[in-house]
Write a structure and sequence with these properties.
The chain is mainly alpha-helical and 343 residues long. The chain has one domain (8-342): Orthogonal Bundle (ABC transporter involved in vitamin B12 uptake, BtuC). The protein is built from 14 helices and no strands. Helix 3 runs parallel beside helix 8 and helix 4 (103-118) crosses helix 11. The radius of gyration is 20 Å and the shape is globular. The relative contact order is 0.16. Belongs to the binding-protein-dependent transport system permease family. FecCD subfamily. InterPro entries: ABC_BtuC-like (IPR037294), ABC_transptr_permease_BtuC (IPR000522). This is Iron ABC transporter permease.
């Protein structure tokens, strides 16, 4: 009987994963087909599968504009979701996330500062420099949040402090933008609002390597994470080095959120909402399932939101953070109401 229930559970998990993959491919086709130039689905599949890179309009649009943007949205959306899951595990708070705790804003502040300085001497900023700056900014804010967490017992107050730190970092970023060159202000402002536009294949490759490393490392920590979810005492009894484990969670979550901020700017609510959506779909909190499925679910969520941002008021494009807030904020409100009822 137990074995039969386990088989049914695994089968349900597999069905959900297959459904998410199908939804992912549908969104990829729809995203490629959406825009001022409409490309038939058959032509899209033919160009991609046969790797046709001629000088036709359709080929240039797919390979140079739409496909890099789609892949970047998928890669970074999944990374942000896994980062949120790691932070929720670390703080044991369902509404912890890179954006709420101010980590994304810290990364935005560091990248904004580096971009303003670097653009005075170079035409563009290398991807490695942007990620490094975002990583340092993330760790800086994460350190501040951890410092406050040791003195404040209430997690709700910790989140309030995270929001205040976020506002401070955003104010400093705006201060940097004030002294930027007029030619760079538009790009900096667009980036600071969050967007997948301007994606390039170099960005896709660089972010794919970093996010794949973060995903694999997080998956390898599945067993320690599962034990940590049951309490520090239980985790220690299983032979887990708590200090080293916490450092690993901090570094991984900061790396993933920094990668997102460096290439797409700060994106709100994905890191909070998507892990919970994944748990509701899977009806489990086992990290070995949640981490990969959360990545896939985050990719689908960001592809959907990016589609809305491009097409809702075309040709005007909305910031991706605006759309993710519209769909993610209700999930957070529901979590807070549910948490209040259970208190």
């Amino acid at each position: 009987m137990v074995k039969r229930d386990r088989v049914k559970t695994v089968f349900r998990y597999e069905c959900i994963i297959v459904a998410l993959f199908l939804l992912f491919f549908v969104l990829v086709i729809v995203n490629i087909n959406s825009g001022t130039v409409s490309i038939p689905a058959k032509e899209i599949i033919r160009i991609i599968l046969l790797r046709i890179r001629d000088e036709s309009v359709e080929s240039n649009i797919i390979w140079k504009i739409r496909l890099p943007r789609i892949l970047l949205a998928a890669i970074l959306g999944g990374a942000l979701s896994v980062s949120g899951f790691l932070l929720q595990t670390f703080f044991r708070n369902p509404i912890a996330g890179p954006f709420v705790l101010g980590i994304s804003s810290g990364a935005k502040m560091a990248v904004g500062f580096v971009m303003i300085i670097a653009l005075q001497y170079w035409k563009s900023v290398p991807s490695s420099v942007m990620v490094a700056a975002a990583f340092v900014g993330s760790l800086l804010v994460m350190g501040m949040v951890l410092l406050f967490s040791q003195r404040i017992g209430s997690m709700s107050m910790l989140l309030v402090i995270g929001i205040m730190v976020s506002y401070i970092c955003s104010a400093i970023t705006d201060f940097f933008i004030t002294f930027a060159k007029e030619t760079d202000v538009a790009n900096l402002t667009s980036w600071s609002m969050g967007s997948f536009s301007g994606a390039s294949w170099s960005n896709v490759k660089f972010s794919a390597v970093l996010c794949l490393f973060g995903l694999v490392a997080a998956f390898l920590l599945s067993k320690p994470i599962g034990a940590y979810q049951l309490g520090e005492g239980y985790a220690q009894s299983m032979g887990i080095n708590i200090k080293a484990f916490r450092v690993a969670l901090i570094l991984l979550s900061s790396l993933l959120s920094a990668c997102v901020t460096a290439f797409a700017g700060p994106i709100s609510f994905v890191g909070i909402a998507v892990p919970h959506i994944t748990k509701m779909l899977m009806k489990t909190s086992k990290p070995a399932w949640i981490i990969p499925v959360s990545y896939l679910c985050g990719s689908v969520f960001c592809l959907f939101c990016d589609l809305i941002s491009r097409t809702a008021f075309a040709p005007t494009e909305m910031a991706i953070g605006t759309v993710t807030s519209i769909f993610g904020a209700p999930v957070v409100i529901w979590l807070m109401i549910k948490r209040k009822k259970n208190a």
